[in-house]
Amino acid sequence: MGFLTVRPVCAGCGFDRSKADSGDGPAVFIILIAGFLCAFGALIFDLSLHPPIWVDFAVWLPLAAFVSVGLLRPFKGVMIALQFHNKAAEARRDG
Q1: What is the three-class DSSP state of 16?
Q2: Is the pLDDT of residue 24 over 60?
Q3: Is the pTM of this model over 0.90?
Q4: Model confidence at 89, in pLDDT bands (50, 70, 90)?
Q5: CA-based angle 18:10:28, to the nearest 5?
Q6: How far are the Cα atoms of 11, 42, 83, 88 from residue 25, in angstroms, in the given order?
Q7: In whole angstroms, how far apart are CA 46 and each of 63, 67, 68?
Q8: Is the separation of the CB atoms in 71 and 34 below 8 Å?
Q9: First and final C-alpha spacing in the chain
Q10: I need a surface site. Which of 1, 23, 37, 83 has the fewest CB within 10 A?
Q11: What is the percent of the chain where pLDDT is above 70?
Q12: Nearest to 63 by CA among 38, 45, 44
């Protein structure tokens, strides 16, 4: 299984998840969250310590990448779970 691949059938209950697709929903929320954390963190860091620009790049670019990749999988799972919970058309049990 891949990093973002959804298993087609639930191992616990046998529910068919082959039609589940989260689309771009998780990416939108992650951009907002990671952007907020990293942009305001960098702003406060710069205003308080006045580091050289290379320090900003060395600290904030990897942090933004790790936060984005780290949140991607859980947010995809939450979006798919919300589809099933709210009986979205792509994720219905009956069709």
Answers
A1: strand
A2: yes
A3: no
A4: low
A5: 60
A6: 25, 26, 11, 14
A7: 15, 20, 22
A8: yes
A9: 25
A10: 1
A11: 92
A12: 38
Question: Beta partners for 9?
Answer: 16
Q: Which of 73, 70, 65 is nearest to 26 (CA)?
A: 73
Mean pLDDT of the region 69-89: 86
Grouping H, G, I as helix, E, B as strand and the rest as coil, residue 9 is strand
Lowest mean pLDDT among 19-28, 32-41, 45-54: 19-28
The alpha helices in the chain, defined as continuous H runs, are 25-49, 53-85
Residues 6+ apart with CB under 8 A from 31: 68
Report how far residue 39's alpha carbon sits from residue 45's, in angstroms, rounded to the nearest whole number: 10
Maximal CA-CA distance, the chain: 59
Which residues contact residue 3 at a Cβ distance below 8 angstroms, ignoring those fewer than 6 apart?
A: 72, 73
